[in-house]
């Protein structure tokens, strides 16, 4: 079944970009298929177990089959309607396929479900270099809700969500990632003094395990890194897309509209189309 899913992913578009282009997933790696087979076996042994459902859906998504992953999380919602994790993960994959209204609905429901509940560490599906999970369920819900609103250019709601995501997190990775988005939103809103203020807690000596790109961008916004310092050669990774999108925005704020648009167009043509920087570039170009 995993092999059939992989073959299907390769021949049908998973989404249509905001610029009207069909988007195809790359063939999944052998490791991704092996992990999917393990998660599928667990799911088939006990398809009602919430953790089994979540990991089955996550592993399907990591093969690029976002529609099937959304179906699995939907089945999970039917079985566990009060489990915020189901809405959190389905909402993420709605973002991947550019269905932002659906994503917002899921994340807002997740926000309702976590109200008054203790936070919890969210296990990584794609571990960082230190194999140390850095994110939480509450933080990820608010973070992705902010992103979904950002992609619709709903700055007020995006800022509300990212301010909450910043407050929820208690590590430097969270601080740099949410600060990056808060800064960009405030600049888009013309609130430049507030944008500079949110950068104050960001320093070069922070302990950042995973979100190096966001850390570098924040230091760039502060004037502590140069353009050359952060524009690396590998722009085709999610981190590279994040840097490219941050720089494109900075050029836009600085009045260099032609350069900003050229960079957004380059990002939108990136094969790694599920990266948030790529989706955001599409959203900006579609709004021109």
TrEMBL record:
<protein>
    <recommendedName>
        <fullName>Tetratricopeptide repeat protein</fullName>
    </recommendedName>
</protein>
<keyword id="KW-0677">Repeat</keyword>
<dbReference type="Pfam" id="PF07719">
    <property type="entry name" value="TPR_2"/>
</dbReference>
<keyword id="KW-0802">TPR repeat</keyword>
<feature type="repeat" description="TPR">
    <location>
        <begin position="84"/>
        <end position="117"/>
    </location>
</feature>
<dbReference type="InterPro" id="IPR019734">
    <property type="entry name" value="TPR_rpt"/>
</dbReference>
<dbReference type="InterPro" id="IPR013105">
    <property type="entry name" value="TPR_2"/>
</dbReference>
<feature type="repeat" description="TPR">
    <location>
        <begin position="139"/>
        <end position="172"/>
    </location>
</feature>
<dbReference type="InterPro" id="IPR011990">
    <property type="entry name" value="TPR-like_helical_dom_sf"/>
</dbReference>
């Amino acid at each position: 079944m995993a092999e059939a899913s992989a073959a299907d992913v390769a021949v049908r578009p998973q989404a249509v970009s905001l610029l009207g282009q069909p988007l195809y997933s790359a063939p999944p790696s052998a490791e991704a298929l092996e992990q999917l087979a393990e998660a599928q076996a667990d799911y088939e042994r006990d398809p009602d177990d919430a953790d089994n459902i979540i990991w089955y859906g996550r592993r399907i998504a990591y093969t690029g089959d976002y529609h099937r992953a959304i179906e699995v999380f939907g089945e999970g919602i039917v079985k566990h309607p009060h489990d915020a994790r189901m809405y959190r993960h389905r909402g993420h994959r709605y973002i991947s396929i550019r269905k932002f209204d659906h994503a917002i609905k899921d994340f807002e429901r997740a926000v309702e479900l976590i109200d008054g509940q203790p936070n919890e560490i969210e296990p990584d599906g794609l571990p960082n270099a230190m194999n140390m999970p850095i994110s939480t369920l509450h933080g990820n819900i608010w973070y992705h809700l902010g992103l979904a609103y950002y992609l619709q250019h709903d700055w007020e709601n995006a800022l509300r969500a990212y301010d909450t995501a910043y407050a929820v997190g208690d590590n430097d990775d969270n601080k740099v990632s949410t600060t990056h988005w808060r800064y960009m939103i405030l600049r888009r809103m013309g609130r430049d003094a507030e944008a500079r203020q949110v950068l104050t807690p960001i320093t070069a000596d922070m302990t950042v395990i995973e979100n190096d790109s966001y850390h570098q961008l924040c230091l760039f916004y502060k004037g502590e890194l140069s353009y050359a310092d952060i524009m690396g050669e590998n722009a085709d990774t999610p981190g590279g897309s994040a840097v490219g999108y941050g720089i494109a925005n900075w050029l836009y704020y600085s009045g260099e509209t032609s350069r900003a648009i050229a960079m957004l167009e380059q990002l939108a043509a990136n094969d790694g189309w599920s990266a948030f920087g790529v989706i955001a570039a599409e959203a900006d170009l579609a709004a021109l």
